[in-house]
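The record is given unchanged here:
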Amino acid sequence: MEECNAIQLAVAAGYEVISTASPKNHEYLKSLGASEVFDYNSPTVVKDIAATMNNKHRISASAYAIGVGSLNACIDILSQTKGKKFVAQASHDIPMKEFPTNMLAIMWKMGSSFVGWKLKGLRKGIGYKFVWSTEVMANELGSEMYEKFLPIALAERTFIAAPEPQVAGKGLEGIETAFAVAKKGVSAKKIVVSL
């Protein structure tokens, strides 16, 4: 649940957050600051979120795409809303089973995907940017977040390290077990191996 930290950071920056999750995790995401949470498996989720956003008094709409399938949904939602629109993508949108195995193919697939998403967004009046984690670490936002905001917020418990860790093993020998646990599927947990 990568969105656990994104929700808290966005709320701390003054944004209202609307998110998606399975119904069993709706209250959990609300406890982290999401104002509304929708079932990502609902056949009407795009229409429902767009309608909710259109009922709010605002002049812009932004989306943060995390996970396979989220970018297309974010563009579809924003295309139905009013005001200035922008989507930031934080993870690739290629299912792991379709992910190439050699570096040249990976770069080609990701590069062509970025261009395609940028063009789709432009056609619908939506700005687009892929956010590289190294980019955030190297700019002033990274310094503000990692050196100034997070140490204080974690100490004061206004920012919660989330999701909760689930220790799946110890040492290098625990890595295979951790992969097996993750492959079976977990919900609202971060699989870790203690060293």
Q: What stands out?
A: The CA atoms of residues 48 and 141 lie 32 Å apart.
